[in-house]
Amino acid sequence: MRIAILGALCSLALSAQSISLSQLELNTNQPEKTLAELWGAAAQNPKSAEARVNVSFALLSLNRLQQAEWAARESLELDPANSRAQFVLGWTLARQYHYTAEALYCLHRAARTYPEAHLGAADVLAHQGSTVEARSEVEAYLATGGTEHRRIAESWLKLLAN
Fold this sequence. Notes:
The protein contains 9 helices and no strands.
């Protein structure tokens, strides 16, 4: 039963593109150019956590997960309280199948600002075998009033009820 739930959750996994934070718009025709511009901004502002997290998000959107993780970690070194960097790091770890306490910690911290982090936390918890806690995270997402991933969240609730 647990394997069926995990398989279903994996098939419903959110892609990096579906979690756009709308603070960063990538030029879909030339994403590398946009990434190069973001790297340039980060180089010009070496102590800017926000510049690093912008790079990290762009890398996540391009599915360059190890590099996204590295840039998010750099951002958190500069500003440990940066919720956007927490979100990107937690999501990136989960996308790399690193369903760890660190991923869960980052997603929990980010959930105060980014409701989608609850869904990432639910994914991590489900893969850890904690289906009751995973269900609580999905319910927490729905309680925020988020609508972008409501259908997916409701599907997850049905799967986690069994």
